[in-house]
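WARN retry 2 of 3 for item q-0093 after timeout on previous attempt; input resubmitted unchanged.
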Amino acid sequence: MHELLQLSLCLLAFNCFALAKFNHYRDVFKTRPSDKLSKQFLIAAWISILLSLVLSVVQHNGYGALLFCGYMALSVLILMIFYSFKASWVKIMTALNITVVMLSGLFLTVF
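OK item q-0093 returned
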């Protein structure tokens, strides 16, 4: 369950990095992002990526950084495929990803 949370946080972070850029945001939402919204996406992205790194290192000790690199690579691959072929599905994927992050975080606190 920890691995799913770490991967989801990486995916969320790189999606926020992408949505902070004008072209990707326009492809998904068909409008121009405001400067404030772009900054909010960047802040959320940095928080998510750093949280994923910390969780990986804490959970897996020496192998945490290596696993984190793998989570980053997989996240970028998934996003590259979505943005290249079905940018309209990014909204759905983002909603599912946020749900997974919340549920896995809730599950970890309960158990």
